[in-house]
Amino acid sequence: MRRLHELRHEFVEFIPDKLEPGVLYISIPYATTTHLCACGCGNEVVNPLAPHGWQLTFDGRSVSLSPSVGNWSFPCESHYWIRRDRVDWAGAMQRDQIDAGRERRRREIDRHQSGTNSELASPDTRSWRQRLRTLLRLE
Ligand SMILES: [Zn+2]
User: Fold this and answer.
1) Is the residue at 64 inside a domain?
2) Domain range holding 17?
3) Tag placement on the chain: N or C end, fewer CB within 10 Å?
């Protein structure tokens, strides 16, 4: 497998079913980003954008995600930062950081699901949240 060192970002409304390697898909309406793991393993990585999830920075040319992307639920356990469309590889994460990150995301998704916003409660969004939870292996 070949580790990528850059990603091309693409703003979309809906995340496509078939993802291209090396592309970071960003859906502002659904406040989420998705890409295939930058290690080349082919797993789908979903990073929801939220105050306590990930934050996206778009400088007009390139995007950055914060905090880092830690794919500890995949066999590759790859960990990297996406900064200005580049992939900066990091070492293995500590176990307690992994657990804290997972707990944070679980709370964030639960909060979205119990939201009273009518748009958030639409059937489409509900199935999207369900897919998100499955992808994140929180269930
Ligand atoms: Zn991987």
Assistant:
1) yes
2) 8-135
3) C
CA angle in degrees (0–180, nearest 5) for 121-125-130: 110
pTM of the model: 0.67
**In-domain check, residue 1:** no
Q: How far is the CA of 120 from the centre of ligand 1 (A)?
A: 30
Euclidean distance between the first and final Cα of the chain, in Å? Answer: 28
Structural domain count of the chain: 1
Write the pLDDT tens digit of every residue in 61-107.
999 999 999 998 999 999 999 999 999 998 655 666 667 777 777 78
Q: What is the pLDDT of residue 70?
A: 93
Residue 75 Cα to ligand 1 midpoint, Å, equals 7
For residues 36 and 19, the answer to whether their CB atoms sit within 8 Å is: yes
Domain assignment of residue 3, yes or no: no
